[in-house]
Request: fold
Amino acid sequence: MSVAALLRHRDAALALIIAALIGAIGLRAPVFVTPESLTGVLTDTSFLFMLTLAQMAVILTRGIDLSVAANLALTGMIAALASRAAPGLPVVGIIGLSVALGAALGALNGAFVAFVGIPPIVVTLGTLSIYRGVIFLIAGGAWLTSKDMNTAFLAFPKSTLFGAPILIVIAALVSLFFWALLNHSRIGRGLYAVGGNPVAARYCGIDLRVQQFLVYTLAGAVSGLCGYLWVSRYGIAYTDIAQGYELTIIAACVIGGVSIAGGVGSVPGALLGALFLGIVVNALPVINVSPFWQMLISGAVILGAVVINARSERRTGKLILRGARTTDKGARA
Amino acid sequence: MAVEASPQSSAPLEIAAPILTLTGVSKRFPGVRALHNVGLELRAGEVTALIGENGAGKSTLVKILTGIYQPDEGEIRVSGAPFICTGPRDAWAAGIAAIHQETVMFDELSVAENIFMGHMPLAMGGRVDWTAMRQKTSELLKRLEADFEANTLLKRLSVAQKHLVEIARALSHDARIIIMDEPTSALSAREIGDLFAIVAQLKRRNCAILFISHKFDEIFQVADRWTCLRDGEEVGQGAIADVREAELVRLMVGRSIEQVYPKREVAPGAVALEVEDLANASEFDGVSFQLRAGQIIGLYGLVGAGRSEAMQGLFGLSALTRGSIKIDGAKIKIGSPAEAIRAGIAYVPEDRQIQGVVLPFGIRANITLASLKAHARNGFMNLAKELQTTKKFGERLAVKAANWEQKLFELSGGNQQKVVIGKWLASGPRILILDEPTKGIDIGSKAAVHEIMGELASEGMAILLVSSELPEIMGLADEILVMHEGRVVRRFMRGEASAEMIVSAAIANDDRRDPLGATEAPQ
Reply:
């Protein structure tokens, strides 16, 4: 395959750009490309991997979930409070609680979107504020630090499984789950269908409302899981953790080729989008690039990705017209 | 009704020079000749009725006059000067304005803003001169004897009042040629009377009016001249005073059914579907029929007669208010498309792009979309089985594609339609609803669709065919139901009716229309 042909494949082009980025940073700071350092980057990016996939499922149905980071912060706080109140609670129990709680918060979004019929951006903007507010109320504005958390609670995210950091293992399992769901399950086919053409999907007996309820609940469950992992990894819980992280997640989706118009997006693409942002955020400080340059670079990349997406959609448009040329679409009344 | 300007003496009209002349206008779309060598003359102070069946080319002609399409051949002259129109602004500049079936305006803006949208009076520094705009609007509204203000928001107006706004907009451009494309379709009888009074007023102001309507009573009431289109050709014109309705119907339809339809003689089986007195809130009422296995029932009617809506009601897409549905003699309730599919009904919808295909999907994913459950095991899609089904129906329908994963946006309209039909056949139906299945597809695909319909019927499929193409309906259907304004007005058995009889029934030129039953302002 020629380079030009490779570049035409979006995911391959993004992978090449990431490789080039790592290479360029490695030239300036060889310490960055050591296995330990790269593992660290992957570990740090685990949250972004999981949340980007969850967000993609929502965006596929032509929706958006702005409340994922707030959900993460709230479930993280509740997990920390629960652990403090019941130090005997095993980590498995805390994870179960976080996932269930996150799913419930997501289901609330889903219910408003699917069954009340409010636009997703409005619903999740509302719940974003509500969830942040609730954190303040239940913690009385206090910060919970590692002193308030027990050893098992704190140790889990730092543990390893088969030699790999547990966060990477969990992110891999979540990715596998989303790959199976989106690429191979009946539900996944329905999600792509309602995003690709909601009217046609409705005629085929696929209920948009069920799909919407499902994806917001799922996004909530992943946020809840990340909530516990985040709080225990960084050893701190307060109102503003992961503040603004929802925008990074959406940016990763866009860079990864997920169409905001719905119906288009792949698991590998979304993972590459998340990896790209993970590297930018982690690597640029290493080579002494200021955080403001990071923001600028992230922003430029998002715009670039949108331009590429729009161009590939324009190509789609041309092909539709060629089809129309052999018909008489709209020609006669 | 306040129509004082109907057929006057025709002498002065003969003298008036035409202000709009079309000669030899042709417009081709790939595979379709939309207009061929059409001539038309509009004269000041006259109403010319443009008549023709669905798809005769009326809308194409309107789009050419308003600059949306450019003609391939022919000449258009306005007041003697050649008119080259590349967009709405050129049309306005030439004094041409169109009033559409469904008014396209801005609901959240005021009447004044709607009238002057695109040519607002400006004051110093490019600001909008609101005072002048409101004043001009008030003058226009007064001239039209409108009972609303310049500041009223458009969404507060009825459909008839919105038509007035459109007419005011036309007058604000000093329009001398006004096209009215089925202006009465959403009006009550009283509002129609008001509209005709305005038409009379426009005539007195020496405007030329092109009046497009399916309703012959209105045409005879308001028009001075007529021009008839059929299959994109002008087949006649003259003065309304010299023509009878029967002759116009004959001109509209008058074609021999040349196309050969592969109609197979199928002995009808048991009653598969029995529909009785089906109605929903506003679209159709009292729809009843019995459909047997192997039988094709055709539903004919003009656009907007409620055929598709009735089929959508049957398929669970709208809430029924009355009626019963029996499948194989057992009464069932259908509240959603999923339930309809489970009951063995498939619905190939009219609008392929919007209701049929999922463009970013490949052929395989489209074909199995209505039968995901049958192609899944434990919730996971069974790719081998999907490919098997895709191959079966793709080959049976002769879908032309590089491979079964080819995306739908890369296929031609005819092939897309075959995929949509394949999708519905893959759901294993016993009752198949085909809504305009050959609309806008090439001749070859059309023949293939007709062929497959015959095959399916001979295999015992019960078929409901909604079509606006008379030859298709007459060639394929065992029984023809003609709908008009949401009701079945006539039933014909195969071979029982001529094309003229069917069209007359569809036009349902009855004066018994209940004026109180007409719509007020559907919004």
Notes: Chain B touches chain A through 53 residues (CB under 8 Å). The longest strand of chain B covers residues 18-29.
